[in-house]
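Ticket #4471: structure output looks truncated?

Reporter: J.K.
Steps to reproduce: submitted the chain below (94 residues) through the standard prediction queue, then opened the result file.
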Amino acid sequence: MATKPGAQEYYNSIFELYAEWGVDFIKIDDLSAPIYHNDEMELIRKAIDKCGRKIVFSTSPGETPIEAASHVSEKANMWRMVNDVWIAGGMLST
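Returned output as attached by the reporter:
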C-alpha cells in the first residue's frame, strides 16, 4: 500500500477521523511479519503527527527484526518483540 498513489492522503484521512473521534491509542497488526514494512511505518507516523492529536501507536503481531529496531523505535511508541504463542499446534507443552 505504501507505494500506491494517494497512500499518504489515505492514512491522513483515517487518522484525522480517529482524532475527531478522540482516539488515544491505535494498534496496527502485521507491520513486522512476514517482512518489516518500513514505508508503511513512515506513512502511519506522518499521519499521526499531522492529525493534531497525541495518539499512541503500537504495532504487532510478529517479531520485529532486530535490524529494524532503531527505525521502529523512532516511528512507534510500542511494539511486540515476539510472535503470538498458541497453546494449540504444539507451541506449548505441559
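Triage note (M.O.): checked the attachment and the full C-alpha cell line is present. Residues 7-90 form one domain.
Status: closed, working as intended.
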